[in-house]
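Please, structure for the following, as tokens.
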Amino acid sequence: MQSQDVAQHHAPAPAESGSVDVEQAEVALAEHYPRLVRIAYLVLSPDLGRSRRVLTAHALAQRALPRGRKRPDAIPAQSAGRVSDPGYAYLRERVLRTALRAARPRTGLPRLAQLPPLLPQVWGLRLFPRSGGADALALDQRLSALSGPARAAYVLRGLEKLSDAEIHKVLKAAGVDDPGGALARADGMPAQPALLSSAEFDPCSLQARPTDLMRRRQHTKAALAAAAALAVCGTLVALPGGGWGPDGAAAPVYAENPAAEAALDPAKLTRISPAAWKSSARTDFSVWPARGPLTGDKALLRRALAVWARPGEKVRVSATPDTQTGGPAGPPQLLYAGAVDNARVVILYDGLRIARYAEPKDGTQGAALDFARADGASRAEASALVLGRSDGNVSYLIAPWVKKAASRDLMKPESTATPLNVSDGVTAPLASPALRPGSCTSWTVLQLTDTFGTRLSTDLGELVPAQLTEGRPGSTGAVSGAEGLRAWAPFACSLAAERSAGIRSVNAWAYAEQPLPDGSGAGDWVCTRAETWRGAGTAVLAQFHPPGKPVGAVVAKGTDVPACGPHGPHVLAGVLWKSGAGTWYLLAAGGRDTGSITTTGGVRASSQGNLLAVRAKQGVQASLQGTLKDGQAIDGLH
């Protein structure tokens, strides 16, 4: 059980100014090395590629100490933000200065800071941070569009928690000519401090992949010749002028295999007739036709297939949990090829996974490859795919059997849906709750209508939107009528907890209504259960909605538990609630099949039926046990 509280956050005290000697700087480097490397990694240009960016970031952090052992008389100490250490502030300024030099566009001969680092070096391996979800990929793409000083301003604000005045001072000390302009450009980026601190941007927590194993084995006695051959392969991938080679951003070919080669042949892609779904016994992705204006662009399709088979160093790969990212076993099915915003996009399906390939329209060397599981998709689950996200909006590719598309605010059940224009299966953009920063005041969902009725789905940061349902486990239905919309409205914002988790569907079950003990009305109890494509990882939230509140409160949760599911359609949860007169109560509720409720611990009470209300003290801890009408015992969610 959880009481409804508001946490208080305290800003850190500012660091004191002073001077720094070499010994202080050495101690600060040892203590804050991972943070300095992360700052360098985020400020460096993503055009370097993730592997080289990692090594360059480590090199810049290691070069931050002043040369020699001479003690400087006075090294000015800047504000360090949330780390009160003048030595750290000094090293951060040096790291920023060299990272900004390395991030500047080359004109003529490269500067020393723009050359590949001599140390550290890693032979035979490519190192890069762990691949993140759609949110991390979107942030990395936004950062790549900023200048080096603007990236530095964004990082200092989001990661270091510096004020704009402090950022202006630090950027000026790092050699930025226009700190104010850098801050202004960083203002256009939504603040995402949690992502900046995540593993996706941690160059000290790395994944390792081999370089060209076959070539290394064949040329062990001629290492220099092998290195030259690999360099030649690299220049063949990137054509002069920044254009695409035949395989685009794919890695070199490791071995020739007939089946693998067939999977890379655009001419052998599976293409379904536009009318096939009308006579097929299946209604899933396997009967989607190929759509989009670039379905005949063999060069684009070849690059997409090659990158899927062997993503190169400059390819950003993301996948929903427990989704394999290996190449297709045979020629996949083409679902879409066309231009979306500033990218060319190809969507493919191999019977188990949806793969989305995206490359920049301007021909720069870099691409994104996203995967999502889609095995066993039902008609509703195969009704839409995310085609692209930008500027807080999302556009979908919808199934051929969908007749109408609209957007709806899930938090306003009485409002009407807004129709969406659809062209060649592509919807007009609508607001994406997966990209919205800040507090949750609305939740826009996609409403699709076909011959079987109307259904709602929501973008949770993945390729396949999650289906929304409502009702008792075992007899759930689509959210379409007024009752289902009203049941979902107070709990829409709780969907934010399921972003990028591989969610297949989310069901809301209004399992109890409880009159409040002070006579001020009745509160609603709802259990939401999120099912995943992989089966494991189901998430259950018990939520309480008191009258007069716009949103409900999560009071208990569970992972991989049978509660609220088809195998265990039961639930019991409680909450500490404060009346308008200031009296605290322990409220608890179970489903209609609950015969009695008992509470132990800080509160000892029992009641017959599925509701319990008893006076309690603020912050008290109690455990709930229930008995079903058939005598089966159940425990309360925590």
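The radius of gyration is 28 Å. The chain has a mean pLDDT of 82.
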